[in-house]
Structures are given as C-alpha cells and as structure tokens.
Amino acid sequence: MADKKTDPVVVIGLGRFGTSLALELPRRGTEVLAIDNRPKVAQSLAGQVTHIATADSTDLETLRQLDVPDFYKAVVAIGGDLGASILTTSLPIELEIDDIWAKAVSRHHGRILRRVRTDGGRRTLRRAFVGRVGRPINPANVPVYRLAC
C-alpha cells in the first residue's frame, strides 16, 4: 500500500474548494482524479491534475467506470447542489473507500452528512477542517466532515 500521505485521492466537485484541493495535492506528490459535471471546469484543469473527468458523480456505475474504487481517499467538495452532495457522499461508502471527506455549506447540511451511514453504522462522520488535510488551501475554514471507521 502507498504511503498514507500520498495515497491517490479522488476529488469530486470542482468549485473553489475542490479546485484548490485538486491543484494542491499533486504539488505534494499525490495522484488526483478530479471529477466535475461541468465540461468547461474539467477542461480548465487538464494538464494540472493527474486525471480529470467530466461525469455525473451521483451515478454509481459512472464512478465504477472511472475506477473510483481504486482510490483510498475521496473528497466530496460539492456545495451548491445539496442533493448531489448527499447522494455523492453516500457512493464512496458503497464503493468501500476507506477515507472520505465531505464539504458542508451549512450546519443543516453537515447534520445530514453525519447521518450518511450505509455500512451498519461502523462509519461515523466527524467534523474537521481542510487545514488538517493540507496547508492553507481553505482560508475561510469551510466545514468539511470526515467519514471514519
């Protein structure tokens, strides 16, 4: 298994937060698969991240086709569409990804994300901040929740 600090990471949702993370991680030697449903956004990162895809992150089969189950870590950085955020956050659990982080845009959103449990309750959602994942990628301390065993 790769060094935990450089395990490949899938970043889903390429707004300001997701893009910042997707660009910073390769600078630290981490392989990144960046996914967004907007073609122009995905194209703008071509050549700057290891892998880029335009895809519907709410579709389990699409994530499988992108080899998302091969990644040890996932970050769901979707904030504008709560339904897509919640559904997308549930899929890496189903794909048995070990380390999952999800961005929340409000306390209510965070509360819902904490309730996302699909493996009999062995995973819980703990609040954390992006500063713990990387350097000052997130100066505003956007709440990010970690699903952990």
Molecular structure report:
With 149 residues, the protein is of the alpha/beta class. The chain has one domain: 3-Layer(aba) Sandwich (Rossmann fold). The chain has helices at residues 16-27, 39-44, 60-65, 82-94, 107-114, and strands at 9-12, 32-36, 51-54, 73-76, 99-103, 124-129, 143-148. Strand 4 (73-76), helix 4 (82-94) and strand 5 form a beta-alpha-beta unit.
Percent of residues in beta strands?
A: 15-25%
Mean pLDDT over the full residue set:
78
The CATH class label is: Alpha Beta
Provide the CATH topology. Answer: Rossmann fold
Distance between the termini: 18 Å
**Uncertain spans, ≥5 residues at pLDDT below 50?**
118-141
Q: What percent of residues adopt helix (DSSP H or I)?
A: 25-40%
> How many DSSP E strands?
7
- Enumerate the strands of the largest sheet in spatial order, edge to edge or round the barrel: 3-2-1-4-5-7-6
The radius of gyration is: 14 Å
Structural class: alpha/beta
Give the CATH architecture.
Answer: 3-Layer(aba) Sandwich
Morphology call: globular
Total tally of structural domains: 1
Largest sheet: 7 strands, mixed
The CATH homologous superfamily is named NAD(P)-binding Rossmann-like Domain
How many helical elements?
Answer: 5
Secondary-structure element series: EHEHEHEHEHEE
